[in-house]
Amino acid sequence: MSFSGSEYLYAIGGSSDGTAANGLSSIEYATVNSTTGNVGSFTTNGNNLTTALTDPAVVSFVPAVDSGTGADGTLDLSLADATGGCVGDGLSWDTNTSTCTIATHDRFVSGPSPGQEITYGAHSFEIPSGPQAGKMLTITGKDTYVFDPTSNTFLNGPSFGDTTSYGSHSFLIPSGPQAGKVLTVTSGGSTSRIYDPTTDTFGAGPTLSGSSSSGGGHSFPILSGPNAGKVLTVAGGGSSLTNIYDPATNTYSAGPNLGAAALYGSHSFLIPSGPHSGKYLTVIGNWQINKTRLYDPATNSYSAGPDIGATPNGTGGGHIPSQLHQELKRARY
After folding, report:
1. What does the pLDDT profile of the chain (333 residues) look like in tens digits?
2. In angstroms, rounded to a whole number, what is the distance separating the alpha carbons of residues 44 and 29?
3. 3-12 burial string, b = 16+ CB within 10 Å, else e?
4. Residue 91 — φ and ψ, nearest 5°?
5. Could you tell me whether strands 242-246 and 251-254 are parallel, antiparallel, or unpaired per DSSP bridges?
6. For a Cys staple, 184 with which of 88, 122, 170, 194, CB 3.0–4.6 Å?
7. Could you tell me which residues come within 8 angstroms of residue 4 by beta carbon, excluding any fewer than 6 positions away?
8. Residues of 199-216 as b/e, b for ≥16 C-beta within 10 angstroms?
């Protein structure tokens, strides 16, 4: 809008999350530089709407505003062309009324339901091959569902044959007689299951050695050293024990002692460069512990890692599934 030769951009109403429950009645404005088109900082207007507004807000400019390059990080608009320069996600220009409409957006929309209550240890993995290739298999606790991205729906999956708990996770078997299948550590015990994408079925997997997996349990591939091609599983559950999965024999054996009790939030990542390049850093988790441990594949041992500036808290965390999946695919191929 133009007042006394100055141009202003108004933001009217809206919602902090796109829902009516958090609708806003505020009116904010910013000055627009008529030479560069740059928009300044927003200031709250002294007047408010009588009711909250979550429908699209309308902003009108009278004079043309030259566009800027955007190099300074500010918003640049040009109204000197047929579209009014009102171009971008959520913006639409009305040539009849010379208005730029800013649409509100939901951050999330409702997704399909698996049809089953999700419980502890629930997680998903991409089906790597077979008739369901490209779909996602979701383990809800004791049941499974297959998500089809084409139809955006969940369908009943194969019988899991066990129950997951805190720390349950899955990884792609990179080599050996079970190559291309997916091993699921059930947690809450020492059992595992193996998913065969060719037959779309689960079967019994190897038993963990000397430990049971629980909260904070996770796995990562060993990419070098004497155990290259194997997978290290951190037990979690307040334990310092680890297991090593050998795809050649489809068995677990005792791994190096972590040297600290891993629990909720524990996870590991590959160090990409620097003096510890090729090692794995394991965040211990366990609420009040800000410690980490370094796994050296050359010596198959753990040592002290750097302290974290803040103490991990809660039950979140875990190895990034896509990163684990890609590392195992590289190890396989």
Report:
1. 444 445 666 665 555 555 556 666 666 667 777 666 666 666 665 555 444 444 443 333 333 333 444 333 333 444 444 555 556 655 666 666 656 665 554 555 677 877 666 778 889 999 999 999 999 999 988 899 999 999 999 999 999 999 888 889 999 999 999 999 999 999 777 899 999 999 999 999 999 987 777 888 999 999 999 999 999 999 988 889 999 999 999 999 999 999 999 988 899 999 999 999 999 999 998 765 788 999 999 999 999 999 987 665 555 444 444 444 455 444 443
2. 7
3. eeeebbbbbb
4. -110, 135
5. antiparallel
6. 170
7. none
8. ebebeebbebbebbbbbb
Question: What is the C-alpha separation between 302 and 280, in angstroms, rounded?
Answer: 9
Q: Nearest 10 degrees: CA dihedral of 198, 202, 206, 209?
A: 130
CA pair distance 327, 321, nearest whole angstrom: 10
Cα–Cα distances (Å) from 81 to 35, 63, 103, 193, 239, in that order, read 15, 12, 21, 62, 66
pTM score, two decimals? 0.65
- Residue 258: both structure tokens together: 């972590």
Containing 330, the helix (H) or strand (E) segment is helix 321-332
Give the residue among 22, 98, 108, 11 at the shortest CA–CA distance from 56.
Answer: 11
Q: How many residues does the chain have?
A: 333
Distance (Å, whole) CA 316 – CA 264: 7
Nearest to 168 by CA among 181, 182, 147: 182
Neighbouring-strand partners of residue 99: 60, 94
Cα 76 to Cα 66: distance, rounded to the nearest angstrom:
8
CB neighbours of 328 closer than 8 A, spacing ≥ 6?
171, 172, 173, 174, 221, 231
How far is residue 84's CA from residue 308's CA, in Å, rounded to a whole number?
Answer: 50
Q: Where are the domains of the chain?
A: 1-107, 165-332
Name the superfamily (CATH) of residues 165-332.
Kelch-type beta propeller (2.120.10.80)
